[in-house]
């Protein structure tokens, strides 16, 4: 019995599955990095602003005002009368701190102003208002 001569075809590397796997991994990393935005405060509906700028600083204190008027200092509930002392306990004299005010867009203007007024009494801080 004679076997037909098989012409030797050269070996080939099929890279299409490898490209598919690489694109799947790339898509995973792109989508996962979209969820890595850093939010220091509690979730509130921030107002939008066209001229908002990103503030980068190592020493950040976050004050959050929720829609019902509740105030939080670094995610801990605090009363307005205790806010100044609470921030002063976190501030050290060696470098300035940035206090970011996360106020819900439905909070009354008077409540935001009263919190800002208390924060301005603290020495050694800079005040910023968070927007989207």
From TrEMBL:
Molecular-function annotations in GO: transmembrane transporter activity
Primary site of residence: membrane
One Gene Ontology cellular component annotation held by this UniProt entry: plasma membrane
GO BP annotations, alphabetical order: protein transport
Membrane topology: Single-pass membrane protein; Single-pass type II membrane protein
Protein name stated in the entry: Transport energizing protein, ExbD/TolR family
Domain of life, per lineage: Bacteria
UniProtKB keywords: Cell membrane, Membrane, Protein transport, Transmembrane, Transmembrane helix, Transport
Subcellular location field: Cell membrane
PANTHER family in the record: BIOPOLYMER TRANSPORT PROTEIN EXBD-RELATED (PTHR30558:SF3), EXBD MEMBRANE COMPONENT OF PMF-DRIVEN MACROMOLECULE IMPORT SYSTEM (PTHR30558)
Taxonomic path: Bacteria, Bacillati, Cyanobacteriota, Cyanophyceae, Coleofasciculales
Family (UniProt): Belongs to the ExbD/TolR family.
Coiled coil regions in record: none
Source organism: Coleofasciculus chthonoplastes PCC 7420
Transmembrane feature ranges: 15-36
């Amino acid at each position: 019995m004679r076997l037909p001569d098989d012409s030797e075809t050269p070996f080939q590397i099929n890279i299409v599955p490898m490209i598919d796997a690489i694109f799947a991994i790339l898509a995973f990393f792109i989508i996962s990095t979209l969820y890595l935005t850093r939010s220091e405060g509690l979730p509130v509906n921030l107002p939008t602003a066209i001229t908002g700028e990103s503030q980068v600083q190592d020493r950040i204190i976050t004050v959050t005002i929720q829609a019902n008027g509740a105030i939080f200092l670094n995610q801990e509930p605090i009363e307005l009368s205790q806010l100044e002392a609470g921030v002063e306990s976190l501030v050290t004299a060696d470098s300035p701190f940035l206090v970011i005010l996360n106020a819900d867009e439905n909070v009354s203007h008077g409540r935001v102003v009263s919190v800002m007024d208390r924060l301005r009494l603290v020495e050694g801080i800079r005040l910023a208002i968070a927007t989207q």
